Prior knowledge:
The protein is mainly alpha-helical. It has helices at about 5-20, 30-40, 50-55, 60-65, 75-85, 85-90, 90-110, 115-140, 145-155, 170-180, 185-195, 195-200, 230-240, 250-255, 265-270, 300-310, 315-325, 335-345, 350-360, 360-365, 375-385, 395-405, 420-425, 430-440, 470-475, 485-490, 495-500, 505-510; strands spanning about 260, 275, 285-290, 290-295, 450, 455. It has three domains: about 5-20 and about 375-510, no CATH class; about 75-200, no CATH class; about 205-260 and about 280-310, no CATH class.
Amino acid sequence: MHIPIRQPLRSAALLLISVCALQTQAAPVTQDQQALLVLNRLGYGPKPGDLERVKQIGIDNYIEQQLHPESIPLPPALSNRLAALETVNQPTGAVLAEFLSLRKEAQQNKDEEGARQQQRQFVTRLTDQTAEARLARAIDSPRQLEEVMVDFWYNHFNVFSGKGIDKALVASYERDAIRPYVLGSFRDLLGATARHPAMLFYLDNWLSTADNAVARGKNPGKPAGLNENYARELMELHTLGVDGGYSQKDVTELARIFTGWTFNQRELATRGRGFYFDPKKHDNGDKHWLGRNITAQGQGEGEAALDILAMHPATAHHLSYQLAQYFVQDQPPAALVERLSRRYLETGGNIREVLRVLFSSREFSAQAGTGSKFKTPYQFIVSAARAGEVQFTNVRPFINALNQLGMPLYGCQTPDGYKNTQSAWLNPDALTRRITFANALASGRLPLNKVDGNTMESTRNVAAPTVLDTNTLLYTLGPAISASTRNTIESSPAGLRSAMVLGSPDFMQQ
């Protein structure tokens, strides 16, 4: 769905950009700005009343609560909504079984539109429900840091949903391999992603065998050979970093270590059996990796490799840099990264403890009022929905908006995930598209309560999209919107003001 931007709004928004283009504030930091900082960085920005709530309980107490999401109850309406998402809650094998069955039927009956339509409807339902689960939590869950970290770690261990059967696996991947570990042990998170069928399939490790082994599945009886995709990304992206001190020989040796880490699509679909170690595919020769001699011990070789990688000083630095870049600024202070790295190693890779040091640091506190981070499209859309306290029963407009803004949900094709820096997302075309979305959302023209084309959702107690109130938005966002921006908005036509709030450079920063 494409909603054209109206010329008056375009002109007014361009005026805003020229008046207050991404400038920082030099005035003394206020309590409101400190509260806004934690709402923006530990979450997706304030909902109405959030600034007052954070100030009332205290910023330090708010941070501590967010570090322990299990202590924060979910609203019953959100819990009920999530429980009703059938495909998201089904076992991995059951979803894959239906996906494979419909795909096979469509392939066998290529001339029958009914079979293809059934397949399309299932994929649409699966896509929409997976997106609804993520977005409903991000917009309405009070466990905001948990949702931020789900997004952060999914992006770190990215799996592209558009690759084959991963369309049917990403919901389980996020639910089972990412979400339970986002504030816990990095080693546990690393192991969960390494063994999940979505990652095994995405980076092809399920096909990787010793050169003299016999492949099974797609080409039974034919040698599959060594596949280095997972081993390379495991070191370059997931742990050590591109400058982590490993060689191409280390990539090959690590790939040999992980031969036999696999899964079988049929076994997963029929018996719910996911990851398993296949000794017939494993390279049992000795390996020399990262200066260590690795003797043959089957699956234990891979587990030992994950242990080593998880606690490697290069991994501590790589993860600390990424966390500081995400939560502080695009070029994070070296001293902060070093302190985070030390804490990571001291605590055995405890993510919560590393974040506690980060959020209590002077470098983090110094970001209040600076607007030093530029929102990604995902952050922009979720924060706009929160600021407007938007209710929705149709997730499709949000999915479409993310597509138009260049950040499809679960849609990054490359293993490195989406960037979270200003240089990746700030350009004239992107700003125009954000303003278009802001206009549609603020004016109530997004069909957020429509499903199945023109059919109106009949769910009770869900408000239809309405025009967002400018005064409420400005009150909710508090110091996020500067005095100069407010003056420009107030001097503009009344019908454009709410859209100008959400389309302002001030709102796009955090």
